[in-house]
Every structure is written in structure tokens, then in C-alpha cells.
Amino acid sequence: MTQTENKPATQETPFVPIEKIVALCKRRGFVYPNSEIYGGVSGIYDFGPLGVELRNNIRRFWWWSMVQLHDNVVGIEGAIITHPRVWEASGHVENFVDRLVDCKNCKRRFRIDHLPPENVVSNRCPVCGGELTEPRTFNLLMETYLGVVEGERMKTYLRGEACQNIYLDYDNVLKSSRMQIPFGICQIGKAFRNEVTPGNFLFRQREFEQWDLQFFVHPSEMQQWFDYWKEKRFEWYKGIINHKDRLHFREHGPDELAHYAKQAFDIEYQTILGWQEWEGIHWRQDWDLSRHSEYSGQDLSYTDPITKEKYIPWIVETSGGVDRTFLNLLIDAYEEEPDPSGKEARTVLRLHPTLAPVKVAVLPLQKNKEELLTTARSIHNKLKRLMVSQYDDVANIGRRYRRQDEIGTPYCVTVDFQTLDDGTVTVRERDHTSVWYSEDRCDY
Ligand code: GAP
Cβ contacts of residue 134 below 8 Å, gap of 6+? Predict the structure, then answer.
């Protein structure tokens, strides 16, 4: 396929307002507010037909990169509900808290760690200047109960972070999969937090999905593996975005570090909301396996098969989120391009083709010629066995191209009158454009 004059996909564009992403997601079936007909639930969302495709592609790509491509990494899928002692051992029952203040005047609520320092000192609301209440502490774990007999039900929690399953299954994986240290376990799964200030659409939710790698190492190799995974994860994100300059590392300051951590870095992405965490790379040391050994009474130490040295492995954690990836990718991909002929601007999602929810659309040029429709349907029927393909014969061809641009479809195949003569079709690319697109003829 040849290209006409290329329009680079990474051209400098202003930050897109979140409201535009929210509107597109609802309009085109990516994301809906949960329980909308009952007025919705703050911080909880459902994913529509295109949202599910995008999420599946994001998950699949992460799994392929992290598990399939690494001989020393395997995957698990743990349960959302675990024994309640897990959350005592992990420190969440005691420490997983937000400290909040309310403005007595405008009634807004703030996390103290999100307030500008001057407002903490003056005890004044950053929005209206009103007086703030005394801080109150809230635990973020979501409680649930197992059992049916009142009085005998066991209180436990929906998992507050997905990674705990990995520590719980670590010994089983070790014994059942012939892994030896250094090795890693990956998981993708839902997590639940009673976030007191959910917001910014998918950014901070109460039900969300995390992906974790927990990589188990000998303490002497911790730094080397920490550096390895830190770079790997950064390159992974860089590979799926257009605006590479909107990605950076932020190292946690000494006051932010967990008590067991020597180092922690956030991979941050810049949007209209400023720089925000996308994924955390954490030096967890031997904290998790030591605590679970202590609380469960099971010895989770490792004996080196060659040296016979016995030790608790140290852990490098890379922990990110499907939802933040979903949101950041839409923000990164969204563009509005002026129409050269002065008509309505074109909205285009420049999503990486591997992640785009629909890979190809097959469009008969006109609806009034049955042969065009039959040929187009037959091409679509072949393509859909290999990838997500859409057939569309409703509205004029320009409108149909725009519909596909707006959901990020990288290619459109147009069946026209020449197709009937010589068996070729027009292939239109989403990104390479002089007047919006290039096209070339291909055999099918
Ligand atoms: N196991 C470590 C851990 O859970 P975290 O920084 O709390 O660390 C890891 O979470 C990732 O999970 C974040 O980088 C973010 O991508 C995602 N995440 C955390 N809280 C979230 C929320 N309320 N809504 C959406 N995603 C969230």
C-alpha cells in the first residue's frame, strides 16, 4: 500500500477536556454510568460494546508482554474474596485510611494529602476560603459478609488491592510450576476501595481493575531487577501512546515511602488534570511474604536448590490499572481536526492499531446496488473470523468514515464499482492523510 502525504499522528495538540472524553464514551458505547436509570453510583462505571473490546485488547496486550514473552513469569487469577486475616497481615485493616476534612461553608470534602500546604496550615478551604473541620479518618476497605445465619456470618473484605492473591498463591505456584527464583507472578483483577473522593471519570473509582507483576528475587539482586522492570514498564507505556513527552517518572520522596520501601517510582502521564500516577514500581522487600508467614504460621521462605541458602525472597512490584490505561489512552488518542473544506471538524481517535476496538470497517460505496452490498458482506464475513470487523451501509460514505474515525478504526475497506470489475477495493487509513486520508487499491 502506498501512502499519500503523511500527517504525523504525534502532532502537538492541546490537552483534551475530560468532558469530551466522557461524552464520546457515552455516545459511542465505550463507558456508561453504572445504574444510570436509578441516578447512578459515584465512582462506578459499566463498559459498553466498544469499551469491552478496548479493555480486552489492553488486557491481552499486557498479558502477552508480561507473561507470554517472559519465560520466568507465570500468571494466576485469584478470588476477589479472601480470608479476612489477609487484610490484617497486609496492614490494610490498620493503615489503609484516608484523612478527610470538610469545608463548613461550601460543604466540599478534601483529602488532607491532596490539599495545598498553605490550606493545611491555615485550615481554610482552597475553593471558598471557609473554615475546615477537624480531620476524620476513613478506612478504604469494602466490607462484606460470608454465610447466611445472622450472628454467625464472617466479616471479610472485597480485595483492596489485587496483588495479595499473588503472595497467597506464591508457594503453590513455586511447587506446581517448576519456577525458581528469580521469577514473577502476574495477575489482572478487580479491586475495590471506598474512595472518599472518587472522581475524574475512570481515574479514581470505587471498583476498578489492576494489573500486577510481583517479581521474587534474592536480596542481593533486588536493585538490578528493580531497574530492569522500571525501564521495561516505562517502555511499554511509551510504546502505546502518541504523546511520548507526556510520560515521565516521579520518584517518591522520603515522606511518601512505605516503611518497607527503599525506592518507589510512579510512571506519570500528563493530562489537563496535571501529572497523575499511571503505574507504580515498588520496592516491597520481604514485607509481604514475612507478614503472611507470621500471620498464617506457614513458612514462606525459599531454599536455593544449589546453594541451599534459605531466605524470604524480596519483591519488585509493578502495579498499574486497566481503567487508567483505558482513560489515558483515550485522552492521548483524541484529536479534533479542522475540516479543510470548512465543514464540521473531524474527531479521530489515534489509538494504537493493536488496541483499537474495531480493526477494520467494510463499507459498500452505495446502498442502491445489490452487488456492492453482497461483495462487501462477503469480505466482512471473511475478515471477522480474524479480527473485529464492522459492516456499515448506513449514510453517505463520508459520514461512515467519520463514524469509524471517532472510534479509532485504523482501516476502512470500501467496495466500489471498480471492485465489481477487477476485484480490488479501496483501503483507507485513519492516520496518514493529506486531506484526512490516503487510499490505495488492494486485491482482496
Ligand atoms: N499493590 C499496590 C497498589 O495497589 P496503588 O498505587 O494503590 O498500588 C496501583 O495502585 C494502580 O492501580 C495505580 O497506579 C492505578 O493505575 C490503579 N488504581 C489505584 N486506585 C485506583 C482507583 N481508585 N481507580 C482506578 N484505578 C486505580
Answer: 101
CA dihedral 20, 23, 25, 28 (to 10 degrees): -120
For residues 364 and 372, the answer to whether their CB atoms sit within 8 Å is yes
Q: Determine the Cα–Cα distance for residues 272 and 15; give it in Å rounded to an integer.
A: 5
- pLDDT tens-digit map of 201-245: 999 999 999 999 999 999 999 999 999 999 999 999 999 999 999
Ligand 1 center to 94 CA (angstroms)? 19
164 lines ligand 1 (CB under 6 A): no
- Evaluate: CB of 163 within 6 angstroms of ligand 1: yes
Please tell me the distance between residue 204's alpha carbon and the centre of ligand 1 in angstroms: 8
Q: pLDDT of 393-420, one tens digit each?
A: 999 999 999 999 999 999 999 999 999 9
The widest CA-to-CA distance across the chain, in whole angstroms, is 78
293-334 pLDDT tens trace: 999 999 999 999 999 999 999 999 999 999 999 999 999 999
User: Does ligand 1 lie within 6 Å of residue 237's CB atom?
Assistant: no
Looking at the CA of residue 193, tell me the nearest atom of ligand 1.
23
In whole angstroms, give the CA distance from residue 160 to residue 139. Answer: 10
**Pocket test residue of 208, 214, 269 for ligand 1, highest count of atoms within 8 A of CB:** 208
Q: Is the CB of 320 under 6 A from ligand 1?
A: yes
CA of 240 to the centre of ligand 1 (A): 19
Q: Is the CB of 210 under 6 A from ligand 1?
A: yes
CB 374 within 8 A of CB 367: no
| 326 CA distance to ligand 1 middle (Å) | 13
Helix/strand/coil percentages in the chain, nearest 5 = 30, 30, 40
CA atoms of 299 and 294, how far apart (whole Å): 8
Strand ranges, E, within 178-232: 183-192, 207-217
Ligand 1 within 6 A of CB of 414? no
Cα(168) to centroid(ligand 1), Å: 20
Determine contact, residues 287/328, Cβ cutoff 8 Å. Answer: no
| Beta bridge mates, 335 | 348
Instruction: Check the CA dihedral 403-406-407-408 and report its sign.
Output: positive
